[in-house]
Specification:
Chain lengths: ~325, ~325
Amino acid sequence: MKKCLITGVNGFVGRHLLQYFDMLETDITEILGVDYSPETAAFTHQRQPFSYRFEQVDLTEPEPFTSLANDFDPDWLIHLAAESSVAASWRDPDRCMTNNWNMTYNTVRFLKLRPIQYQPKCRMLAVGSSEVYGYRENWEEPLEESQQRRPYNPYAASRVHQEDWIQLNVKWHKLNIVSTRSFNHTGPGQSDRFVVPSFIRQLLEAKKNGQKTVHLKTGDVRLIRDFSDVRDVVRAYHLLLEHGQSGEVYNVCRGEGISLLNIIEILAEMLKLDVTIEIDETLRRRGEPPIVIGNPEKIFRATGWKSQVPLEQTLKEMIQKQLKGTSKNPLVII
Amino acid sequence: MKKCLITGVNGFVGRHLLQYFDMLETDITEILGVDYSPETAAFTHQRQPFSYRFEQVDLTEPEPFTSLANDFDPDWLIHLAAESSVAASWRDPDRCMTNNWNMTYNTVRFLKLRPIQYQPKCRMLAVGSSEVYGYRENWEEPLEESQQRRPYNPYAASRVHQEDWIQLNVKWHKLNIVSTRSFNHTGPGQSDRFVVPSFIRQLLEAKKNGQKTVHLKTGDVRLIRDFSDVRDVVRAYHLLLEHGQSGEVYNVCRGEGISLLNIIEILAEMLKLDVTIEIDETLRRRGEPPIVIGNPEKIFRATGWKSQVPLEQTLKEMIQKQLKGTSKNPLVII
């Protein structure tokens, strides 16, 4: 018998989290989803008998979020809401910092101000980012949670701030919060503002036009990233809520890197296209680390979680999904 | 020929910085001091021929600070202004975070938005705090700049955020900013809300009442801290502006610890008093590290600076200063 509050529920991960809870037998009986934006498509659960309700709420303000959350009285608070675009954080760093700070502050404040008898009850999962690692000397070494954080973009700095705030509140107010450093994830339904869906969109357009060879304009495709399937990621979040240790932060990653070029090659092979690459320097992001690979040992030891879905399968399903839908976004942001 | 802008000039360190510049032959010709609070006593320089002007400015807003600073066109920006009380940061963390963020953001923004031809010209000294180190496993080890930061109070978290913001702006916008992690400092003129002046006040009151033995109510006086004289500290700031490396952060510390109890013993000896101690748990601050000692090697290598004034001399001058003035603050905040 669990009540679960999800912030940022309209996002890519939020939608997959709902679907995941609908696939799995859990003891969840009620879910309240909140988001800054209105619900684009109502979520209708099909299998599991929990009740679902959506509320449009601006988390950067304490109210009405606090009242709503107090009325709902959740056992789990899954905090996905964030200004999470690195590119946008360069365009308006103050907005990214202030909004992310306020959202973290208000969610933690809700836990802190609860009547003391409820406090140990509500457990929060605070989703963070591998961006906190930032700059290093040795790019090859898989990133471990104990490493120095050297955030090198405004978004990353806001995530360090979130981690610190949670850490000290867990310590001094005995709050029950588990944090993640989530690495790259993708999957069906991700906006084609993101790199993998944007590759797929461009290749599918070429295919539709009957082309056999495609000329792709990209950012620096030599970048190596650690990709997991979004469905593995939401499973990790669930397992961390079940078994993670409060005050700890866990990498959510596969532990293996793949270059963006390699992803393009796999896609080209699947779609039977010849692809040539032109690197467009304007698509290059300031301070992109050449290699980001995480070490997933800590989460494995705590929860038994491993990234399972092979990237090839993820890509195949993303192609199928895009073939069904249509997409209009002309931007490629890596 | 240098123009120097000082934020937070009305504070303890700001006043000493002005006095320091008045004692020393430098190439400073103009100083503009700004502070949130009105000037309590006008600064009149006695020796050096620079001009001094004060403006009351709220640094948490971009204006009028930015216009004022642009008009003044400083070569050096010494950023002392901050919400710097740990105790106050516990009472109102959001205020501490938001104000410190805004002040850092607005000063860095001034450097960043300057016409490009002025940019390399203005060099900033961003004063930070040893509080960023926070929690450790091994308390004995002197703190080095390369160590993990684990802020354990809201003030400390705001200082980590400041460091990160400066670091990434130096990196990507080629700004010229040197940062400090300043350890404890004290000296004549420090408010008796702080630990050492509060000891002195209490002992002097007893002395005035003709007591031979004094019963002191204190926080945990077993705490060991690394104290420097404020006049050494402002000298360090000057030397860092001259010789520090942009993007680097420097401990400003003596490299030696002394317990608060030991300081009380020295004061009792000087004032010929017998002192007994009662530890008042309500004066105890959450998350006080038992030992905070810094390693000053990095600043020494960069600038040749060392903490010089012996603590005994500092204490003697503080007693003399308090004997001249009167103090009303009843609080002991450690």
